[in-house]
Amino acid sequence: MNQIKEVTPQEVENKLEENEEFTIIDVREDEEVAEGMIPGARHIKLGDIPQSVDQLPKDESYVMVCRSGRRSMNASEFMKEKGFTDVSNMEGGMLKWNGELVF
C-alpha cells in the first residue's frame, strides 16, 4: 500500500495564503459541511468519491479533509489506488482547523 502524506491544518492554511495550486476535497456529510468549510474546498461526500474521481484530473494536487482525519484518509487511499499521485490527508481534520470558514 502507498503511504499517504499527511499535512497539518497550518500547512494547508499556509498553502492557501501562498496561493499554491491544489484542490481541497471535503468528504464530510452535508450536515457537517453546513457547520463551515475551508474556503475554496470542494465538497464530495465520502460515499460519492468512487463515482466522482473520474471527473478529477489525476495530475493535480489534492488535500483530503473530513471531521477528524479518518474518512479523508480512506478517500486518500482510494484515490491513490485509482492512480492519483499527489494526494495528502489533512491530519486531525476540521477538529484541528483554526482558519477561516465559509458557510
From TrEMBL:
Residues 18-103 form the Rhodanese domain. It holds the Pfam family Rhodanese. InterPro entries: GlpE_sulfurtransferase, Rhodanese-like_dom, Rhodanese-like_dom_sf. This is Rhodanese-like domain-containing protein. Gene3D superfamilies: Rhodanese-like domain. It comes from Halobacillus litoralis.
